């Protein structure tokens, strides 16, 4: 993967370790939009990455706070995988990228930012996009940009995934 230049990620690094877990805490927020939660299925949460590497950078996590793939019950793993492929299709429709990076970083030494709760990164890629995001590389612009992406994506995710908050 070519390194994308994402200077606003410094804010994330400087924010330091939040004692909570974003994948457990964000879905409980009253306002899903400000929490950037795009959809919830029976066992999976889909959210926009607050510190994206690219336009449409989405995170998918099982609702279960778990850091081993093998510890997920089959049904929850299946739900996660199904949601992953739906998410790729929605992002493909909306952004028409040239490709995607799909990745899961297991463990700190593999680069996991939140190592205790496993999650997929879905990053749309465009030809020459290593120079794409600096255009909007300012924190305030990024937040507006994120909400624009949210408003564009959320209805599609809602449609595609039956919301079941159990
Ligand atoms: Zn968690």
Helix content: 25-40%
What profile does the largest beta sheet have? Answer: 5 strands, antiparallel
> Approximately what portion of the residues adopt beta-strand conformation?
15-25%
Rough shape?
A: globular
Radius of gyration based on Cα positions:
15 Å
How many distinct beta strands? 5
Give a description of the structure.
This protein is an alpha+beta fold and 166 residues long. It is built from four helices and five strands; from the N terminus they run ααβββαββα. It has helices at residues 9-15, 22-25, 74-95, 139-160, and strands spanning 37-40, 44-48, 58-62, 99-103, 120-125. A five-stranded antiparallel β-sheet has the order 1-2-3-5-4. A hairpin with a 3-residue loop joins strand 1 and strand 2 (44-48). The N and C termini lie far apart (38 Å). The relative contact order is 0.22. Zinc ion binds next to helix 2.
Question: How would you describe this structure in keywords?
Answer:
166 residues, 15% strand, globular, binds zinc ion, single chain, five-stranded antiparallel β-sheet, 4 helices, alpha+beta
List the helices and strands and how they pair.
Blueprint: H1 9-15, H2 22-25, E1 37-40, E2 44-48, E3 58-62, H3 74-95, E4 99-103, E5 120-125, H4 139-160
Antiparallel strand pairs: 1-2, 2-3, 3-5, 4-5
Helix pairs in contact: 3-4
Bound molecules: zinc ion.
How would you concisely characterize the structure shown here?
With 166 residues, this protein is an alpha+beta fold. The chain is 33% helix and 15% strand. The protein starts with 8 loop residues before the first helix and ends in a 6-residue tail after the last helix.
């Amino acid at each position: 993967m070519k390194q994308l230049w994402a200077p606003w990620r410094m804010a994330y690094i400087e924010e330091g370790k939040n004692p909570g877990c974003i994948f457990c805490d964000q879905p409980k927020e009253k306002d899903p939009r400000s929490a950037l939660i795009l959809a919830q299925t029976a066992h999976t949460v889909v959210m926009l990455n607050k510190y994206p590497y690219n336009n449409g950078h989405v995170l998918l996590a099982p609702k279960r706070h778990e850091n081993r793939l093998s510890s997920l019950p089959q049904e929850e793993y299946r739900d996660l995988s199904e949601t992953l492929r739906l998410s790729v299709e929605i992002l493909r429709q909306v952004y028409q990228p040239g490709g995607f990076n799909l990745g899961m970083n297991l463990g700190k030494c593999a680069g996991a930012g939140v190592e205790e709760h496993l999650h997929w990164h879905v990053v749309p890629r465009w030809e020459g996009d290593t120079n794409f995001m600096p255009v909007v590389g300012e924190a305030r612009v990024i937040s507006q940009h994120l909400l624009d992406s949210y408003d564009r994506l959320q209805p599609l995710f809602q449609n595609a995934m039956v919301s079941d908050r159990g």
